[in-house]
Design brief:
Blueprint (H helix, E strand, L loop, with lengths): L1 H13 L18 H10 L21 H13 L2 H10 L6 H9 L4 E3 H26 L9 H9 L3 H14 L9 H15 L2 H8 L11 E3 H14 L4 H8 L2
Antiparallel strand pairs: 1-2
Length: about 250
Amino acid sequence: MRLALIIICLAALLNPPVLQAEQTTTDRSPLSEAQVQSLFLDYGIDPDTEGVAGGDVDDAAPKPAEMVLGLKIYQALPQSTRDALGRYGTDHLDFAEDLITGYGDIDRINADRLRAYVGFQRAGLRGGVADQLVSADLDGDGILTAAEKVQAMQMLSSGLRSRLARTYDAADRDDDGTVSAREMAAYPDIYAQQRFGAADEQRIMALLAFDLNADGWVEVDELRHGLRALEDSGASDGDAIKLLIGG
């Protein structure tokens, strides 16, 4: 309850009611650690423990520095990730540690490795759908006809039949009933972009917001620290953090 009151007070400082009608942007810098500490003290709260002076101490409560760090990370995230955090909390980023250990340099990852991961995912999608089309091109002339599609489907299980039918229809961009050589060459990339598009790439590259020491690498320890700071700042509560940073 005490932390909720502090969040409301922080929101009031960042969003004075008399100025709201004149604001043209929702981007605001978070309060500094000193400002947060001052606000804690104004409400009789020990900024190092979030306990009431002379009363009980809550060692697990967020500290001002962590709240400020969390807000800074939040503001560095793309809007799609912010929205997901509001809906799912930091569970939305549970994939990140596995990505670092699986595709990075043991316990860290940088922008190049993240882009390579994006490329790897799209390459897998391109290869899968290209293999479907090429396998159904029974005479190997680079053109997939409706007759070839039917013949190929007869050799597949029911699930793979429907999959080939959907791929065939989607690849036939001009709806003339045939997948031309140009369409066969172009569709795998179209499919990959549809299945792993700009929003997915943005979600992956958003991990760079956790490069807390700005050395170009996101380490597992930095990620864990940053996720805790996001929770402390109210990132798992979409409405609270929107109040704090104005959108």
